[in-house]
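idk why but the lab printer keeps eating my pages so im just putting this in chat instead. protein + pyridoxal-5'-phosphate:
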Amino acid sequence: MTSQDIPAQFEAFQQLALKLDMSRGKPAPEQLDLSNVLLQQLDGFLAADGTDTRNYGIASGLPEARALFADLLEIPAAQIVVDGSASLALMHDTIVFCMLYGIAGQAPWSRQQPVSFLCPVPGYDRHFSICEALGIKMINLPLNDDGPDMELVEKLVASDPAIKGMWCVPKYSNPSGAVYSEQVVQRLAAMKTAAPDFVLMWDDAYRMHHLGEQKTASIDVLAACRQAGNPERAIVFASTSKITMAGSGLAALASSAANIAWWQRNTSVRSIGPDKINQLRHVRFLQDRAHVEALMERHRQLLKPKFDAVLAQFDLYLGAIDGVRWTRPAGGYFIDLVTPPGCAKRTIALAKELGITLTAAGAAFPYGRDEEDRHIRIAPSFPSLAEISQAAKGIALALRTALEELHR
Ligand code: PLP
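predcted complex ->
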């Protein structure tokens, strides 16, 4: 497409009157259908040990649900709690508990103001919303393909006791698809922190969510922390939101025995037990790691063509454009489209004129501020394959139009 063709192409695209919402990384209906057996009546409500799942109790989750997550996370079941249906809620509560009660035997964070968090960017907007809501100051950190810039991380945490934590999406990160290297994980586990109550918020949301045939292995952060003499440093979060059903799945948290006891103490005040019927339903359906991997392969077969379609359109329409690049993730739910400075906001506005709703500009940055205005999060999962190909062309067209305006 030459520069002269762009206005006519833009107009022709507008005539299609498309209406596509790509603002969030939601599973498509055909992915959710893969777990429809969960909607069928449960055949019996007794857990393996005879627990009546219809009643109160078992605050840490059914033993078989903990065993399932132990299999998936490769962490002993005794160090796992299965609770609720959203890992984000567990992350939120963890930070609230740190604020209210303190962690690692230290004073509540609310009495140690100011409190800061390291935020690798681009990152997950809802992590940043939690910090913003709780008045935690966020410090941006560049995220490379193999994880955060460790020189900078080590320097900051060693000198500033106000830095109490760090957000980490170690595998197929949202939105860039970055995968933390073994060396990065070891350094995070071993680094000296000025704060004795520093926490790695280890959000393993995409552990099982490969796009390529090559499956990137996961690194055991809890073992790394233990071996480095910092056994309480990391808290791991995971869920089946993008394995079974988003919002109706299972969520889990894993950490040292001391942190699990801390969590149990704090949560015993807020609930008399989780939804064990959903836990039992999930265990009967998912069974074990092998079955989950087989299910994830079916997700992959639905998702991979959509990612390929976006990449093909970007190659075609943006491949030769100076200063434009995008990630080619090996897993996860997103592509990070990086524009020349000052173009992301305008591209998103132009895409809207073409009927394509994208994640708000700046969302992948604390306080919604992408200072250089460069990052656009592309979420290919929800639209159909035909729609996504069309939408990717529209996004490319919007970016080409924004660039033309800039150079005019
Ligand atoms: N963490 C990351 C990195 C995500 O991208 C998402 C959803 O997009 C979540 C957590 C949400 O997980 P859950 O549905 O378990 O709350």
